Amino acid sequence: MNVKLKVENLSKIFEFNGNRVKALENINLEVYENEFLTVMGPSGCGKTTLLRIIAGLDTPTEGRVLLDGREVKGPGADRGVVFQQYTLMPWRTVLKNVTFGLELRGVPKDERIKIAKKFIKMVGLEGFEDAYPYQLSGGMQQRVAIARTLANNPEIVLMDEPFAALDAQTRNILQNELLKIWQKDRKTVFFVTHSIDEAIYLSDRVVVLTARPGRIKEIVEIKLERPRDRTSIEFLEYRKLLLEILKEEVLKTIKRGE
Ligand SMILES: Nc1ncnc2c1ncn2[C@@H]1O[C@H](COP(=O)(O)OP(=O)(O)OP(=O)(O)O)[C@@H](O)[C@H]1O
Ligand SMILES: [Mg+2]
After folding, report:
1. I need a labelling partner for 13 at 20 to 30 A (CA). Which of 118, 136, 178, 246 fits?
2. Which residues of the chain fall short of a pLDDT of 50?
3. Is residue 145 part of a domain?
4. For the segment 39-88, what is each residue's pLDDT rounded down to a tens digit?
5. Position 206 in a domain
6. Domain boundaries, position 137
């Protein structure tokens, strides 16, 4: 297994208005090529911080991130990010939102439209190319965000609770679509979620972080064939296991009154 992404001795301290918050402490992690890796942990344990540092949107206090052996120094087209909030450009159509990154990279018009249409179709939005974001439901907007990210052909897709704002049914549908795309495209996915069910359904491995400062508490490999059956005994056993691992850390966070 090739290592796609490597996080080395990474720590992050935020300093603001005389406060000092240690968000992450000595994170060491390898994400393999084509792997679907999920990070979980209580609120405020540093998941988004870790994702943002990998994306190059923030810098570590100590340690470093390597993508294909090269140190991450800032944002780049090799990493595609999907956030929880829909981050579409409201003044551009679906098609124009998806072609945006390609436009920036100078891909010729005909070609970028062809690529964009392919991914719009892949996320099930064929026919909505000319719609504006306000004309779409939340789930549809998040599909556009995913299509936009994939159209840029990143080496790794970073997703921060991408389905958290969606209703349960839409969420399940998008999980399946994401899995289909992941299996077809064989991208490496770095995924953050609060949902144990989602983590087990999607992931090859689940990394559980401790309460702040986030350290790696445990890594659970999900050894289930796909498509996974959420009602199987094995699935329920993973659910129990992750709940147990997470509980202690969530309680710590609650006791601190966060
Ligand atoms: N820009 C910032 N300046 C100061 N502190 C920050 C900043 N960003 C995050 N923090 C702090 O770092 C810690 C980790 O935050 P982060 O957003 O990474 O947590 P999280 O695990 O993503 O939480 P959630 O599950 O609620 O999304 C928190 O204590 C937060 O207050
Ligand atoms: Mg977060």
Report:
1. 246
2. none
3. yes
4. 999 999 999 999 999 999 999 999 999 999 999 999 999 999 999 887 89
5. no
6. 86-153
Looking at ligand 1, which residue's alpha carbon is closest to its atom 2?
14
Q: How far apart are the first and last CA of the chain?
A: 39
Residue 135 has φ and ψ, to the nearest 5°, of: -85, 0
User: Torsion angle, CA of 141/185/118/109, rounded to 10 degrees?
Assistant: 100
Ligand 1 site, residue 21, Cβ cutoff 6 A: yes
Specify the residue for token string 């294909």: 68
CA of 21 to the centre of ligand 1 (A): 9
Nearest CA to ligand 1 atom 27: 43
The per-residue pLDDT for 232 is 98
Is the C-beta atom of 16 inside 6 A of ligand 1? yes
Per-residue confidence (pLDDT) for residue 97, from 0 to 100: 97
Which runs of consecutive H residues, i.e. helices, occur in 79-108?
94-104
Does residue 118 belong to any structural domain of this protein?
yes
Decide: 188 and 220 in contact? Cβ < 8 Å: no
173 Cα to the center of ligand 1, angstroms: 29
Distance 27 CA to ligand 1 centre (A): 16
Say yes or no: CB of residue 159 within 6 Å of ligand 1.
no
- What total number of domains does the chain contain? 1
Q: Do 162 and 170 form a contact (C-beta atoms < 8 A)?
A: no
